[in-house]
Design goal:
Length: about 350
């Protein structure tokens, strides 16, 4: 009876608490929310003015008394209070129709975070109104969301390139045999583009502009036909507005360092993979997930560097949140499995 009431009056949520974007899955409904991880607040009073899409529009454009911040940096909480308010807002927005009971929440976190950082995520969600908080590591969530048969006794490799972190894992029999995470991902790519414009053109551009350049013409492998676009910013020398034209070849050069770091962590993971699982990867290859998977030429570059097949997951940006959704849908069975010491993966897949 009580379980029925819980289901009737609360919406259970799966959350991909990304450095760049937060995605929310509602049990029985699917993905209902996708907004930037940005909070705008009054600098003096700390009152929140805007969260999500509207707050992102304010980045770099706020007056002195207002700050627009990204409370998550490199995949972990940098501003606990702002993160708590952001989670509370997204819970409220996704849980509009059922507010009589607080929801159960499954949150995806980077595989490399510490126990302290993990507790911070849990506490932020609990203080934001969660009834229960369950943590799942992002590589596992991404693999589930990508439809990888992780329960099989064969090796599967997932590379999740998000905003703050790149998570790499080799999975077999429902567990991560080898996993690594680095704080080099979409944000570091944007920073590299900002620095490139500063060095090459004496042009100051904002985060949003750098991200747009990356999306519009960014590439990491030679293209049959190179792209170009106009970029606007402020001249460092004169202080006046300035427009310059850049090519995809230039942006490829700007992205070389962060991409090199991502390639290296993938190779390091492959070097630590047991030989039997390495043999499986020759046929199964590597699955790319996360927003970074959409970067032009990345599959070609990784295929050249690893000599393995490279596959991009369907809708790679939503793999983690879809994985939390699968976990959420089977949460009651998982809790029963844990009590009886059965395999959790048996119930998930």
């Amino acid at each position: 009876m009580f379980n029925y009431l819980f289901k009737l009056f609360s919406n259970d949520l799966g959350i991909d608490l990304g450095t760049a974007v937060v995605l929310v899955y509602v049990k029985g409904q699917g993905i209902v929310l996708r907004e930037p991880s940005v909070v705008a607040m009054n600098k003096e009073t700390k009152n929140v003015l805007s969260i999500g899409t509207e707050a992102k529009k304010m980045l770099g454009k706020t007056p002195a008394n207002i700050i627009a911040v990204r409370p998550l940096r490199d995949g972990v909480i940098a501003d606990f209070e702002a993160t708590q308010k952001m989670i509370r807002y997204f819970i409220y927005k996704a849980n509009k129709t059922k507010r009589l009971l607080h929801p159960r929440i499954v949150i995806g976190v980077p595989s490399g975070i510490t126990d302290v950082e993990r507790r911070s995520v849990r506490e932020a969600a609990e203080q934001a109104g969660a009834r229960e908080v369950h943590i799942i590591e992002e590589p596992m969530a991404a693999a589930i969301g990508a439809g990888i048969p992780i329960q099989e006794p064969e090796g599967n490799m997932i590379v999740d390139i998000g905003g703050g972190t790149t998570d790499v894992a080799v999975i077999s029999l429902g567990g991560m045999v080898v996993s690594k995470a680095i704080d080099v991902a979409g944000d570091k790519m944007d920073d590299a583009i900002v620095q490139y414009f500063r060095r090459k053109y004496n042009l100051l551009i904002g985060e949003n502009t750098a991200e747009n350049v990356k999306i519009q013409i960014g590439s990491v492998f030679p293209m049959p036909e190179e792209l170009s676009m106009e970029v606007k910013g402020r001249d460092q020398v004169t202080g006046l507005p300035k427009t310059t034209t850049v090519t995809s070849e230039e942006i490829r050069s700007a992205l070389s360092e962060p991409i090199k770091a991502i390639v290296e962590v993938i190779k390091d993971t492959l070097e630590e993979t047991p030989p039997a699982l390495s043999a499986d990867l020759v046929d199964r290859g590597i699955v790319l997930a996360g927003g970074g998977a959409q970067l032009r030429g990345l599959p070609d570059l990784l295929k050249q560097e690893t000599e393995l097949p490279i596959n991009i997951a369907d809708d790679p940006l939503t793999c983690v949140v879809r994985g939390t959704g699968v976990y959420l849908e089977e949460l009651d069975n998982i809790k029963l499995a844990q009590k009886k010491k059965y395999s959790v993966i048996h119930f998930i897949l």
